[in-house]
Structure formats: C-alpha cells, structure tokens
C-alpha cells in the first residue's frame, strides 16, 4: 500500500498544494519553517484522524481561513482508494473513505497506517508518563479494536468517577455505593488494558532491541520496561487502599491511567545517562519496531515518515539507518531535510533511488527523480 497523490487546501501554511509521490522514497528539501514537516503531518492526519503535532484541529487551519481539507489517493494492491479529511471551525471533523463518511473515526484507525519519526519524539523521553502511554496505546489501537473500546470506555468512566469524587467533596459526604458503580466498570476495562499492554510490551522488546543494536553496531544495551501498579496489587485492592486519598484529592489516584514505560540504556535511565545521539537512536529504534509490529499485525506496510532525523546522528548511524530503510524494504518512505547535498550524498553512497521535492515560500516543486550511480 502506498500514497500516490496528496492534496492540501488551507492546511497549516499551504493555501493549496498537490503532490504526486513515488511508492518508494520521497525527499522534501527546504529551509527550516518552509513547511516540510506539515506535509508529513498531513499524511499522519490521514492515518490517525489527528495531527501528530497539534491535537486541536482548528489550529491547523491556515491563518485567516475557516476550514482545511486534506485529500488523497492510495494504491492498494490493484485498486485505488481515496481518503478525505475536512475540518471547519465550529463543526464536526469529517472523514471519508471512497466518498463514504465514517460514523465513528475509530473505524478508520489501522486502515492506512503510518509511522512518524520526528524530533518531537524526544518528548517520549523528556515528558511524563501520559506521553508514553499514548504512544503505546496508539500502536495497539491500530490493530486491536477491543483494546481501543476498553481504552475509550476507561477514559469516560474515569472522568465520571473523578467528577463524582469532586461533587461529593463539595457537599461534604462520601457515598461508597455510588462510587462502587464506577469502580466495577473501571476495574473491568483496566484489567483488560493492563493485560494487553503487558503482552504487547513483552513481544515488542526484542524487536526494538534488534533495531537499536543495528543502529549502534552492537555497542550498547537498551531495554524497555512496562511499569504498572497492577503488578503489585489487584485493581480491587488498589482502589480500596486509595479510598481515603481519592476522597482527599478529589480524583482517582490509582489505576492503569498511572502506568508508565521505563527507557533504559546499560541499565540506567536514558533520560539521564544517554547522549543526544543515543537518545535519538533509541527513539528511532522504538519507531522502527513500531513499524515492524504494525506490519506483522495489519499485513500492510505503513508509510514511514522521517522528519529531520539526520540531526544529532553520527555518520555511522545515518549510514546504517539508510541501509536498513533500503535493504529491509520498508515500503513507501517520506524524508525531510534542510540540506540538499547531504541527502544526495547519503543516497548515492547507498545506491538508492529517490524522488526529490523542493519546498520554499509555501510551495512544493517536484525535481527530477534521482538515481544513485552504481
């Protein structure tokens, strides 16, 4: 599966843009701020029904306009399929596949998978547990509809339970019977979420380690750990033990919404002990493992989106990454960079053909297809 045509209207910095893509490697080259990343983000929108960079849909509309539209044509086996995303201020977001509007956006997730590797991935290391949970849950949700439903229900029940705790506090009483109604639903969904996360992480770790070893030339040991309160106590015991604390703080202090994922290098937190290059390699390995995982579950190759990935990687890691992308047949790849000569050198050294686009002043200009000399 590959994206053949992309059309943007009033999306971020683009008034109108149309791009015809290669099914293999596409490079978008231009200065910082020209809108290279916005092209990749539009494709991520088509995959996940939301922006990778800004979850507020209306803030992705071109300044001074009231709507944006992203349209696309995808080649799937011998057929073509169209995907449409439309956002208008004050109205519900519209997604269509082959001109048929989705009733639930969740039905679209996983049909046109994409994996983004971006400088913003550093938030997985630097920010709190919520960012890491969303990352893992986003992977699982693309192939496990039951997990997605449990996750959505858990979020709604958690909000209701928190609202009830706050309301009880304002009236100065605590009604255990009313809380128990929400506890039962929270426990049922939470146990399912925990079970799936545990299984996926166990299977995900060796894939991730394989890619990191490849990038680092087997020089460093890394690992990924799933951390959950449910490893130490049952959900029922957790809620019972946290009853007084929940009353005092007026929100639910325990559960799978507190889960986290530990990132380590040589047994130590990579946030504190990893260099910038090691941290970037770690994040790239996570995303490549995510790609392989989705491919094995969905039986279709995600589009691989590589945004400004060469910064802070030494030449050896860059070379190994490009060899990997070429030799392992990752399918369609889109790459952004500021340096035209760097792109040309990397692909010529690895004898890889690519299609190049120049981006400047909110416009996209296709240049000739580059064929590396053998």
Automatic annotation (TrEMBL):
GO cellular component: cytoplasm
Record-listed ATP binding positions: 30-37
Organism of this sequence: Brumimicrobium oceani
Gene3D superfamilies registered for this protein in UniProt: P-loop containing nucleotide triphosphate hydrolases (3.40.50.300), RecF/RecN/SMC, N-terminal domain (1.20.1050.90)
SUPFAM superfamilies to which the protein is assigned, alphabetical: P-loop containing nucleoside triphosphate hydrolases (SSF52540)
Family per record: Belongs to the RecF family.
A single GO molecular function term of this UniProt record: single-stranded DNA binding
The protein, known as: DNA replication and repair protein RecF
Function in brief: The RecF protein is involved in DNA metabolism; it is required for DNA replication and normal SOS inducibility. RecF binds preferentially to single-stranded, linear DNA. It also seems to bind ATP.
Residue span, RecF/RecN/SMC N-terminal domain: 3-345
